[in-house]
Specification:
Layout: H1 2-13, E1 22-27, E2 29-33, E3 40-44, E4 56-61, E5 77-78, H2 79-82, H3 97-118, H4 125-135, E6 153-158, E7 161-162, H5 167-181, E8 182-189, E9 196-200, H6 246-260, E10 266-268, E11 273-278, H7 286-291, H8 297-307, H9 313-317, E12 323-332, E13 335-345, H10 346-360, E14 362-364, E15 369-371, H11 375-380, H12 399-409, H13 417-428, H14 433-444, H15 464-482, H16 490-500, H17 502-523, H18 525-541, H19 552-578
Parallel strand pairs: 2-6
Antiparallel strand pairs: 1-4, 2-3, 5-6, 6-7, 8-9, 10-11, 11-12, 12-13, 14-15
Length: 589
């Protein structure tokens, strides 16, 4: 159960979480009260417009509040509550009578709540000072700065002491929050901890505004929101069918907000967000590895070993029985949508991620090693390439989230991906490691065994589509070697047609290559002989006629064959260069 897993994780976080019913919030003004309570002054803590990182953000009392007669928070609240600052107070004609009346109501409620704490602490010097300050009428309106807005957050300091950080304030606020969010004294068995206690009527803390990306208006979101009898089972509203005690409810939501604000356990997508954690304090760096710009080869090798069930003794010691959890959330107006929930043993997750790397690794002819691509770049490569880079937001919508699910669950990529990727390749003729890796991933997770290609050039393959790709690569090498300064290559002119209908295109290019081979036999006989032999080898491998048309999956095998032939040529060129020979054609720069 999601709430139970979040509550469990709160025990790991310990001091990383704010106090009960507290939430980090930006402080705009500090009300400095003298230590004897005889006066106070307001100090602005608004950061400069271009220095938002200098904002003062600290955990302060918080529970969700709504309606027209909203109650105050303890000690830290808006200027309307703390100082009685009415809305539109800075206007030349002043605030309306209605706004002034509401400001006074809110300020009176704030004073009552503040005194509830202060009067219960007769020996606390800060409480004594606050009582004296409030008894003297607080801060006069003539001392309000003109730029003070009713919505600005104001916190109180006595001397150098933040009042809201006092343990007695935290204790009183917990009592107040439970009174407000409790189910009218209802007690029962908590669904999470299994103990008898006071149950919540509503979840005390929503997800912060902006924490979940959305294409619509950004609002705070409720994980459980049943406001009308038509929405609830048997006509029950709120948490009647989800009995949760006040402590578990607060811990679960505080933990969720902590994860949503994390830099290490969160990934934002255009209209959703994914967070993850482990049941115990285990190594949860697998997700970081998926998104690293250059995944660590040693870590990848360890995961591939785990996939093959042949871990080394050192690798076996790293296996942890802890469970791994991943949660993907979307937002529909003010209601949270759980789009994906994954609960899997960490050892199984290692196998899944090992399969992910095994299925998409691309052989690099220059280095002689497999290259692994970060997940974000795989998603980006399905978009448009403008000649220099991939264009942001041009990939299929939601693809990165789909690929994350594919990696964690070891499932095939979405069916819409292959046609979209092939269309991009045919349109811009750009083929690189990320796109080849994405094609390998799609094909390796196909139900057709013919799609499961080797990571390097397969000289024994008789698959017509794969051979067509190899043949096109060799024909391109023939042209490039014979005409080093050619402006328009056969890839520029014929690649799109060759991928979809290779029969006619390859036949014509094979005939046209004779002139280039003749030129090479004259000017560069060693290279010409090597290319002619390679071209004959590829074309002689076809068992039947060259296919006239290719299906989308066959087109994928065409591109893989094309790129693997080029990678093998680059490896051969490097080998010949190292050995001081020059019989191999020039590799593409």
């Amino acid at each position: 159960m999601l709430l139970a897993r979040l509550t469990e994780y709160s025990e790991q976080l310990g001091g990383s979480l704010p106090p009960e019913f507290y939430r980090p919030k930006q402080i705009h003004w500090i009300l400095h009260v003298k230590e004897d309570g005889s006066g106070a002054r307001l100090v602005s803590r608004r950061p400069p417009p271009k220095a938002r990182d200098q904002a003062l953000i600290t955990p302060v009392p918080y529970v969700q509040r709504s309606g027209t007669k909203v109650p105050p928070y303890l000690l830290v609240d808006t200027a309307e509550f703390v100082l009685g600052r009415a809305k539109n107070a800075a206007r030349p004609d002043g605030p309306s009578p209605k706004d002034e009346e509401e400001a006074q109501r809110r300020h009176a409620a704030y004073r009552d709540l503040a005194l509830r704490w202060a009067q219960g602490e007769p020996d606390n010097p800060s409480a004594v000072a606050l009582r004296a300050f409030l008894a003297a009428g607080g801060l006069p309106k003539q001392q309000h700065p003109e730029d003070l807005d009713a919505k600005d957050t104001v916190a109180i300091m006595v001397g150098t002491h933040w009042l809201h950080e006092d343990p007695s304030v935290q204790r009183v606020w917990s009592e107040v929050a439970r009174e407000r969010k409790g189910g009218a004294g209802q007690r029962g068995l908590c669904l999470i901890c299994g103990t008898l206690g006071d149950l919540l009527a509503t979840i005390p803390e929503p997800v912060k505004k902006g924490a979940i990306p959305t294409t619509g208006g950004s609002n705070e979101g409720q994980l459980i929101s049943i406001n009308t009898s038509a929405q609830g089972r048997d006509g029950a509203t709120q948490l009647a069918n989800t009995p949760v005690c006040d402590r578990c409810g607060q811990q679960a939501m505080s933990t969720l907000n902590h994860l949503l604000a994390s830099d290490t356990n969160r990934r934002r997508f255009p209209d959703s967000v994914m967070v993850w954690w482990t049941r115990t304090s285990a190594d949860d760096s697998l997700m970081a590895l998926l998104y690293e710009d250059q995944p660590d080869p040693a870590a990848v090798s360890h995961l591939i070993d785990a996939f093959h069930k042949r871990p080394s003794s050192a690798a076996a010691d790293r296996v942890n029985p802890s469970d791994f959890y991943a949660l993907t959330l979307g937002l529909n107006n003010a209601r949270i949508v759980v789009r994906e929930w994954l609960e899997v043993p960490l050892e199984d997750l290692k196998v899944n991620v090992g399969a992910w790397y095994l299925d998409h690794g691309v052989y690099d002819g220059w280095t002689g090693q497999s290259r692994y691509v970060p997940l974000w770049l795989l998603a980006l490569s399905a978009g448009r390439h403008d000649g220099d880079r991939y264009v942001k937001d041009s990939a299929p919508h939601g693809l990165e989230a789909d690929l994350a699910r594919c990696a964690l669950r070891r499932t095939p990529p979405p069916a819409r991906l292959l046609p979209a990727l092939l269309q991009r390749i045919r349109a811009d003729h750009h083929i690189d490691a990320p796109r080849v890796a994405l094609l390998r991933l799609i094909l390796n997770r196909s139900a057709d065994p013919k799609d499961h290609l080797m990571p390097t050039l397969d000289l024994s393959s008789g698959d017509p589509a794969y051979l067509c790709g190899r043949a096109f690569a060799v024909l391109e090498a023939v042209q490039r070697t014979a005409m080093r300064d050619v402006n328009t290559t056969i890839r520029d002119k014929h690649f799109s047609a060759a991928v979809t209908a290779p029969g006619v295109v390859l036949t014509q290019l094979r005939i046209g290559a004779n002139a280039h081979l003749k030129r090479l036999r004259r000017d560069r006989p060693a290279a010409g002989s090597a290319l002619e032999s390679r071209l004959s080898e590829v074309f002689s491998t076809f068992r039947d006629d060259i296919p006239l048309h290719l299906t989308p999956r066959e087109q994928g095998r065409f591109v893989i064959g094309y790129e693997q032939q080029r990678a093998a040529d680059r490896a051969a060129a490097k080998s010949h260069s190292t050995n001081g020979k020059s019989t191999d054609p020039d590799p593409e720069p």
